[in-house]
Design brief:
8-stranded mixed sheet; elongated; two-stranded antiparallel ribbon; binds phenylalanine
Length: 358
């Protein structure tokens, strides 16, 4: 009996030791210790033994079973290590391979400029407001003190949507100023908003596109006066163009919705074909502004004897062309990747506050 057991043990351990690979070892485990395995079969044979032999035989079988199970565990670890070793040898990572080039996106100069303008004015306490691109005539013109027969309507080269039977027709907004009206109707002063967005005029050449962008600004409270308007816009121009002592000039002008109105010029030089923003003997117009016309306040239900304020509007394309030296406005919309790679910005560039706002 003992001899038989020794033989079974030797055979079992040899099979475990010589199993090649984890799959083979598992097959050996099933053959020995599985439900129908040979060592499990020994356990079942206990039932047929004489009671006096059973105890000793049981202990011997259990010892054999434990010994074989331990051997299988040890073999498993050894084979798993060998497996890993073999994979490490065969699957080498070639760290000298050149990296695959990743397509890199660029921020369009229009988006960049909008972000810069918003960052500077946001720092001054303006919050962003929005309005629809397809606008009621009343918001785009009438409420802004441009009645139906007003000559300013002709200057705007408006895109009209097809009219309805009753004569009512919508327009593509010709400026962001209708957002002034919507803001004044929907919120109580004090107000301090900017409205960046798309605007539309039927015009197309090197400095005009039928769709372009503006940023509107509006302040309404009880005390803001022309001095605040000037201070705000001078600081804005200097921060945006990053020139601390940039000359800024307010030239009297006319807009139906502001009174008095002004156009803002910044100093520049045009010597020998070179153009530079800063000190010089020339001026360049960059935005329109003025004190909100009391008629506009009244059109929005705001008491003009109590409230006043100022407004301004600027063209984003124009600002971007001047700051980044882009000669033709039409190129903004041609989607030429070579152009975008040249004039675009890294997505990681935080809107520039270079120079701060003083
Ligand atoms: N809406 C004017 C334009 O498009 C700009 C402007 C806005 C002027 C606000 C004065 C005040 O030309």
């Amino acid at each position: 009996m003992n001899n038989d057991l020794d033989q079974i043990r030797d055979e079992a351990l040899t099979r475990v030791a010589t199993a090649e690979g984890l799959d083979a070892l598992e097959a050996v485990r099933v053959a020995l210790l599985g439900k129908k395995g040979s060592i499990s079969g020994l356990m079942k044979s206990l039932g047929g033994m004489a009671p006096e032999d059973r105890k000793a035989a049981g202990q011997a079988f259990n010892a054999l079973k434990a010994q074989v199970a331990d051997a299988i565990e040890a073999a498993k670890e050894r084979l798993a290590d060998a497996d890993l070793e073999a994979r490490l040898m065969s699957e080498k990572v070639d760290v000298t391979l050149p990296v695959r080039e990743q397509a890199k996106g660029f921020v369009h100069p229009i988006s960049q400029t909008m972000d810069e303008v918003t960052a500077i004015l946001g720092e001054m306490g303006f919050i962003v407001a929005e309005g629809p691109n397809i606008e009621e005539d009343w918001y785009n013109f009438t409420a802004l003190n441009i009645p139906p027969e007003h000559p300013a309507r002709q200057e705007h080269d408006t895109f009209y949507l097809p009219g309805e039977k009753n004569g009512h027709r919508m327009v593509l907004r010709t400026h962001t100023s209708p957002v002034q009206i919507r803001t004044m109707q929907n919120a109580e002063p004090p107000l301090r908003i900017i409205a960046p967005g798309r605007t539309y005029r039927c015009d197309y050449d090197a400095t005009h596109s039928p769709m372009f962008h503006q940023v509107e600004g509006l302040v309404v409270d009880k005390a803001s006066h022309f001095g605040h308007l000037k201070g705000c816009l001078i600081e804005f121009c200097r921060a945006f163009f990053d020139v601390d002592d940039l000359p800024v000039r307010f030239r009297p002008s006319y807009f139906p919705f502001t009174e008095p109105s002004a156009e803002v010029d910044i100093g520049c030089t045009r010597e020998g074909g070179a153009f530079r923003i800063g000190h010089g003997d020339d001026w360049l117009e960059i935005l329109g502004c003025g004190m909100v016309n009391p008629k506009v306040l009244e059109n929005c239900g705001i008491d003009a004897t109590e409230y006043q304020g100022f407004a301004f509007g600027m063209g984003i394309e124009r600002l971007a062309m001047l700051k980044y030296g882009i000669p033709d406005l039409r190129t903004f919309y041609e989607s030429d990747l070579r152009w975008l790679r040249h004039f675009g910005f890294s997505a990681l560039d935080v809107p520039s506050m270079v120079g701060g706002i003083g």
